[in-house]
Input
Amino acid sequence: MFGIQVKLTATPKRVDKATDKAAFKNLRHAAFSIRKSAIESMEFAEGPSKPGTPPHAHTGRLRRSILVAQDDKGEVVVGPSYSRVKAGGRPPWLAQMLEHGGTFTWKRKTKQRGRPKKGEAPRPMQTATYPARPFMQPALERNLARFHREWKGAI
Output
């Protein structure tokens, strides 16, 4: 006769903790990989890039504006910071325009302040159409296969 004793211990807290730790680490790593890939796709060159290719980095301001943010809930956001793009004197919609393309309309800067006075013409609007020059979506797509491999053995 054989005597076997089995002791089962439920450790859902330990499993949850390990899962959260692995998710935090891997999401952070994935986000910084996407950021690095997007930055590296922009080469320094004069003039605009061809439509459908990543934009050229003239001064590097757009490259420096790409940030990673992660909260306690495990959500991660990667992309150009609105305030960093705007702070450089560029239109704040620059990154969106480059990623998706389209027609953008804005009020042209003039010396006129506030609302126009009676009899004055309103500030003129300016419109420009730009082709898409995506840089974030291709960076995500280039890294997806690698992320699947890394998540397999995370826990």
Notes: Helices lie at 12-41, 61-65, 82-87, 94-100, 136-152. The CA atoms of residues 9 and 15 lie 12 Å apart. Strands lie at 66-70, 76-80, 102-107, 125-130. The two ends are 39 Å apart (CA to CA).
